């Protein structure tokens, strides 16, 4: 597909339509309850309020976080009806009062981990968290007035999800959760930067700071895990071990730099013992991308005593606590969590997007399927069945 052609043809028609300040009726995939098929229906999208932007979504995809929310695995995510989705790319349709860094026609990426630029966290270079617009599964309305911008044709509220709600032809974002990128960037690929690729690559670059010649083990080879591998490859890691119980992930892993694979089902010893034997005592860095406590423990023990670092990326809905004894930390191993790969979205993501445009990263490897938006339930099933990394939906 000639992405540039589609972007430009859309923009020419988009510019001729003036919908600023008006309610827009459009199609959205509405979740009416946990595990129920999403329903494509007409919804009303209000104009953006102060410091908000309304965005025409052109491409969106499905992440495991969308999947777990759709299943209702986390009580905090059960607000219905709701519009899910948080990985996308689109074009600004209109901006609210006070928005100065974006205008109609700008290409943007929605981000679930916002950056207000003013809070104590945003002003601290040691973190990418934001006190006002950080990721919050409890949040289902806009910050301005505590109300959603979506409603049914009858005027009943439809709730937001993770600051973004991209399973809609139009969505309203806090301006802190929209990142302007180069207009020449291919939007279908840039959608990956909303979550999966940024989360994985950033964990390798910003959080772990993987060094040339180092060894890495990645537990869980979904899109995030493979993005970690891609980041480690670019950084010059000499050994990248992929761990997954789905052997179909291995062929895809080779394309992004994984050098060796382990299927725990094939082993007669714990994974950490196998990795220790392969690496003279353990890897320099391990990444847990599965959201499983036992996997987390294996990842921790797979690192080398004295300096090993484990980065936690998986979402853990279980109330169970970390499976570590405090004394195990005296062996010099460390463990740290990573949100959105440590990227400060508004200030750092535009440069990351430019790196991706230059071919630093192999983004094509992550888009395994493409479908029209009305096939969104089929896209969910592909992810459930472990057949897709990212299924790109065209709106």
From TrEMBL:
<dbReference type="GO" id="GO:0008270">
    <property type="term" value="F:zinc ion binding"/>
</dbReference>
<comment type="subunit">
    <text>Homodimer.</text>
</comment>
<keyword id="KW-0479">Metal-binding</keyword>
<protein>
    <recommendedName>
        <fullName>alcohol dehydrogenase</fullName>
        <ecNumber>1.1.1.1</ecNumber>
    </recommendedName>
</protein>
<dbReference type="InterPro" id="IPR013154">
    <property type="entry name" value="ADH-like_N"/>
</dbReference>
<keyword id="KW-0520">NAD</keyword>
<dbReference type="InterPro" id="IPR002328">
    <property type="entry name" value="ADH_Zn_CS"/>
</dbReference>
<dbReference type="GO" id="GO:0051903">
    <property type="term" value="F:S-(hydroxymethyl)glutathione dehydrogenase [NAD(P)+] activity"/>
</dbReference>
<keyword id="KW-0862">Zinc</keyword>
<dbReference type="InterPro" id="IPR013149">
    <property type="entry name" value="ADH-like_C"/>
</dbReference>
<keyword id="KW-0560">Oxidoreductase</keyword>
<feature type="domain" description="Alcohol dehydrogenase-like N-terminal">
    <location>
        <begin position="51"/>
        <end position="181"/>
    </location>
</feature>
<dbReference type="InterPro" id="IPR011032">
    <property type="entry name" value="GroES-like_sf"/>
</dbReference>
<dbReference type="GO" id="GO:0004022">
    <property type="term" value="F:alcohol dehydrogenase (NAD+) activity"/>
</dbReference>
<dbReference type="InterPro" id="IPR036291">
    <property type="entry name" value="NAD(P)-bd_dom_sf"/>
</dbReference>
<comment type="similarity">
    <text>Belongs to the zinc-containing alcohol dehydrogenase family. Class-III subfamily.</text>
</comment>
<dbReference type="Pfam" id="PF00107">
    <property type="entry name" value="ADH_zinc_N"/>
</dbReference>
<dbReference type="GO" id="GO:0046294">
    <property type="term" value="P:formaldehyde catabolic process"/>
</dbReference>
<dbReference type="GO" id="GO:0005829">
    <property type="term" value="C:cytosol"/>
</dbReference>
<dbReference type="Pfam" id="PF08240">
    <property type="entry name" value="ADH_N"/>
</dbReference>
<feature type="domain" description="Alcohol dehydrogenase-like C-terminal">
    <location>
        <begin position="223"/>
        <end position="346"/>
    </location>
</feature>
């Amino acid at each position: 597909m000639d992405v540039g052609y589609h972007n430009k043809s859309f923009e020419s028609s988009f510019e001729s339509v003036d919908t600023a300040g008006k309610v827009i009726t459009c199609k959205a995939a509405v979740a009416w309850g946990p595990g129920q098929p999403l329903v494509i229906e007409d919804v009303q999208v209000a104009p953006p309020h102060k410091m908000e932007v309304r965005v025409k979504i052109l491409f969106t995809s499905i992440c495991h976080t969308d999947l777990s929310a759709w299943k209702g695995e986390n009580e905090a995510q059960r607000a219905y009806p709701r519009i899910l989705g948080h990985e996308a790319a689109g074009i600004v349709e209109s901006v609210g009062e006070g928005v100065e860094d974006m205008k109609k026609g700008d290409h943007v990426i929605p981000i679930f981990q916002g950056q207000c630029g003013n809070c104590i966290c945003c002003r601290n270079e040691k973190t990418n968290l934001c006190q006002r617009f950080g990721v919050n599964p409890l949040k289902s309305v806009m910050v301005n007035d505590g109300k959603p911008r979506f409603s049914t044709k009858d005027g009943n509220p439809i709730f937001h999800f993770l600051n973004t709600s991209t399973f809609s032809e139009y969505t309203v974002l806090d301006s802190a959760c929209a990142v302007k990128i180069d207009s020449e960037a291919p939007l279908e690929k840039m959608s990956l930067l909303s979550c999966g690729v940024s989360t994985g690559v950033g964990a390798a670059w910003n959080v772990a700071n993987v060094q040339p010649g180092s060894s890495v083990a990645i537990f869980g080879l979904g899109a995030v895990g493979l993005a970690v591998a891609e980041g480690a490859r670019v950084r010059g890691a000499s050994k990248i071990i992929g761990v997954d119980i789905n052997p179909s992930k291995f062929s895809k892993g080779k394309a992004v730099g994984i050098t060796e694979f382990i299927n725990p089902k094939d082993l007669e010893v714990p994974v950490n013992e196998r990795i220790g034997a392969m690496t003279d005592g353990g890897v320099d860095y391990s990444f847990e991308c599965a959201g499983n406590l036992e996997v987390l423990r294996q990842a921790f023990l797979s690192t080398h005593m004295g300096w090993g670092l484990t980065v936690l990326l998986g979402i853990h809905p279980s109330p169970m606590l970390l499976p570590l004894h405090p004394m195990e930390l005296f062996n010099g191993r460390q463990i740290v969590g990573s949100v959105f790969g440590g990227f400060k979205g508004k200030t750092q993501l535009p440069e990351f997007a430019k790196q991706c445009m230059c071919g630093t990263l192999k983004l094509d490897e992550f888009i395994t399927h493409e479908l029209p938006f009305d096939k969104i339930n089929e896209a969910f099933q592909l992810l459930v069945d472990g057949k897709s990394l990212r299924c790109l939906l065209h709106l």
